[in-house]
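Quality-control log, excerpt.
Job 1 of 2 completed; input and output follow.
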Amino acid sequence: MSRGSRLSPSRYLRLSSPRRREADDGASLPPHRMRSGGETDESFIAVGDQLVDLLTENAGLCADSRVLEIGCGYGRLAHALRRHGFVGTYLGIDALKPQVRWCTRRLGGDGFRFRHVDIANERYNPEGRVAVHDLELGDARFDVIVAINLFTHMWPDDVLTHLRVVARSLALDGRAAATFFLLDHERQDAEGDQFAPRMPFERQPGCRYESADDPLHRVGYEPKWLVLKGAEAGLVPAGSPLFGAWPEPPVGRQRQPDHQDLLVFNRLEDALRRR
């Protein structure tokens, strides 16, 4: 199958029943101590399946795509791709070594690779030895780049640096899908105070956060800030945001099943070439 042939979720290549049962065996699922928020086995499977469908519909994911996931965690997407019969290549990177070690042991091989990158993050990896601006992925190019629950724990300078890494790592006509807490001003509470109740603290114009005690727990960005910084990095939105449920989406706007909001980017040079 060519990479130009994009599949709808209903046509996505599935594993045969025996291998699907083997893939869902509890032995192949991440240990509960490694999961966030007390995630159950059922939720791990269901959210992974939803993510594959979202990427297929909105980011051009195909059965033979070259996929990069920045912040692969304990392998939710990789596990789902294996269940769905993915035959392309997948590289997952993460700052947390135990998660990468588990993914390599349980999910590695057959085109799936995992790499520990000791990126510094105030909340998740404060002793990291690699500064964000030193993140280097070499000359590899990817059709689909995924960053789920990554930018929601990151300050503006690090967001811009990661967007630059994404832009230079995307293949021709590739797409990047990332989740955010979008401070879209169509979303307002009943009193009309926009995001003050949920993100009361301003880091800088266009960026707010939820907790003074744990600032990187939830960080939100205005869409116009992301559009400007995306363009600075060499990216443009591929369409309108898909809003999650962290507050309800604006009336009449499309909603996706995740808690967070989804933005999909193209390379700026691809967008200009198609004009």
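Job 2 of 2 completed; input and output follow.
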Amino acid sequence: MTRRTLYFCAAALVASAVWTAQGQSNFQISTCDKHDDSNSFSYNSDHRYSHCEVRTAKLTAGQPLEVAAVNGGIAVIGEDRGDIQVEARIQTWGDSQAEADKRAQDTTIQTANNRVRADTPHNWHGQNSEAVNFHVLVPRHYSVKLDGVNGGISVTDLEGTMNLHTENGGISLKNCAGDVRGRTTNGSIAITAGGESWRGGGVDAETTNGSASITLPSDYSAHLEAGVVNGSIHFDFPLTMNHFNSKEISTDIGKGGPTLRLHTVNGSVSIRRGKEPS
């Protein structure tokens, strides 16, 4: 008989239930309805059973936040708040519903010292039947270190020191500031900046296989550096070059400012002018 994909929704896992384990925070558990993430990793098959749940906990702000995801994306959003909220969306699959449920039960979320990661049966047995995506709300001024494998990283409305790295996924920054370093192996980089100039140390972002783009207001001030190995550079701004060839540029726009650097090996780099406010 053909097996169908089933989504676990046991009555015991109501939104008000509290999940605890040694060395972990208290997590509120809910089902996956209305939870989605564009940076998520997901495996889907009509021939497997599945389990999906969301665990949510609050951490004390203070120590820098570190999040590590294997088979899952990371989304961090800065807000006017004094604590950290971590949401872990856990998806597991198995050849029976009991197997999928057991994989979720055996998945633990570690949060000690604001170092967030998932321990899954995949980590122990080398199988690939779990995905954990993190959605984290932090104070607007905060430092983060985000590491992913098989999932994208996005950061929105945050100012601070950011170290971002993923192996198979893109990196997205929107309305951020501070000292930012981003690296991805297989994925694109997309940065959207606001205001009149970059606040903080600047941006150094690289990808090996993928495009890189930055979108800036028309009156923006910065020092721009862009480079490609196998690809081309496109720009919407009128530029006066300090250094230029078909593979590398270095120039100021507006009054100059912190360095915004984009580089790719296999792909293009685009420096785009944002749309004017209507």
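Post-run check on job 2. The CA atoms of residues 123 and 273 lie 44 Å apart.
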